[in-house]
Amino acid sequence: xxxLPLVAVALLPFALAAPQPDAGVxxxxxxxxxxxxxxxxxxxxxxxxxxxxGYQPTNATYSKRANTAAVPITDESNDSSYSGVVSIxxxxxxxxxxxxxxxxxxxxxxxxxxxxxxxxxCTSCASTEFTTSKSSTFQSAGTSLQINYGSGSVQGATSxxxxxxxxxxxxxxxxxxxxATTSGLLNSGLSGIMGLGFNTISxxxxxxxxxxxxxxxQLSQPLFSFYLERYIDQSTMNTAPGGTLTLGGTNSSLYQGxxxxxxxxxxxxYWLLNVNSLxxxxxxxxxxSSTLAxxxxxxxxxxxxxxxxxxxxAQVPGSIALMGAYAGLYAFPCTTSVTVTxxxxxxxxxxxxxxxxxxxxxxxxxxxxxxxxxxxxxxxxTSVGSGSGIPTWIIGDTFLKNVYSVFRANPAAIGFAxxxxxxxxxxxxxxxxxxxxxVSSSTATSTSSSSSSxxxxxxxxxxxxxxxxSLTLLASVAACFTLLL
Length: 485
Fold this sequence. Notes:
Layout: H1 4-17, H2 42-53, E1 55-56, E2 69-76, E3 83-88, E4 93-100, E5 106-109, E6 139-149, E7 152-165, E8 168-181, E9 192-195, H3 209-215, E10 223-228, E11 239-247, E12 250-251, E13 255-263, E14 272-274, E15 277-280, E16 283-285, E17 292-295, E18 302-304, H4 306-314, E19 320-321, E20 330-333, E21 340-343, E22 348-351, E23 357-361, H5 363-366, E24 372-375, E25 377-379, E26 382-383, E27 393-395, H6 397-400, E28 404-409, E29 412-419, E30 425-426, E31 432-433, E32 444-445, E33 469-470, H7 479-482
Parallel strand pairs: 2-33, 4-9, 5-8, 17-27, 18-25
Antiparallel strand pairs: 1-26, 2-11, 3-4, 3-7, 5-9, 6-7, 7-8, 10-11, 10-28, 12-32, 13-29, 14-17, 15-16, 15-21, 18-27, 19-20, 20-24, 21-22, 23-24, 28-29, 30-31
């Protein structure tokens, strides 16, 4: 006869793994992967970010570009990017997809992709390519679509299938089933993107997964929030616990004080704010007249207009503009601690000096025997588009690691709060206090909306819906993929 205690122990893993919306917290194991030298990949990363937002290098020739769930995530290769495990199809197949507030489409490489061999080198990944024939719920619309990025492009068929993430499911979620990519676009273990922007910028003209959840009444609030861990100032590593993404609410254990919300600049498209003020080494730097900024978790660095970037690095003694493939990037003596503060119209936030230092630049690149390090703010270049909704600044993880950030759709706003004590917050001297958050007993708190007015981008949430679920994500990295997405 089998004792009840033994049965309980045997069933415990299954109880912990199953979605438990009303229990408050779910944790999912993470995966470790590797990446190449991040500094060496900076030229491709910068090129990709410019293409993403329709920019070209300064003075370059013209070229076209084509519910609530709190989530601990993983930091890979010292703060390069973050991804989550997304399940697609019936039965489900699992994929590591970049989580990107700077885009709105969901795409995944399929088994018919003959140019996606790079992702197959991930031996620890449950799945790397989506086998559509194994999903009984997969539907292809038969329409071909190509998406162009700075370092390549993806092409595939517009499709629908069942998609699950964080214990939540959307049937007939629109996605791009990718059948071709430019060589080198996908790195080991990464299979695509999950866009977290608004449907208005979707190349598929689709409703993003997070918006579909709220429209279906699965989320208590139309928002999600991030805490991003810092390891850029630690020795080189593959992955580590990287923070928390919360879908549909906020995680009160990860921040202190109140969340300061700032209304979006313009109608929802990208997550846009206006840069209000900037200081470097304690000196005020003019932000100029073009201040529209996209707040982008899929970008590692901070991109700024040409004149602003030059003024930023003019405040740092010994800094130089890099040339050739590194054009747009700046380097400074590695012995210098660079301190930057930013404001978007509310509080002033300090960027940890560790986040401003991307690592040592080879002397062949810097042209000097002084050990120089690449800086976290670079020149985005010149826009190839026009219109009031084109951002001239891109605010990536260099800034976002220093705050608790909330992306709210209704009323449309972005919120920032001070990180909780013990997390990776800057000290008074700007150095890093690294203590990875342990979210084993975290609480996902549903936040209330200050307005009952409807948002045309969002469906009406069920008044009885109040779901709080915690789960683990991955922070997956590819330096050439980070700024690309």
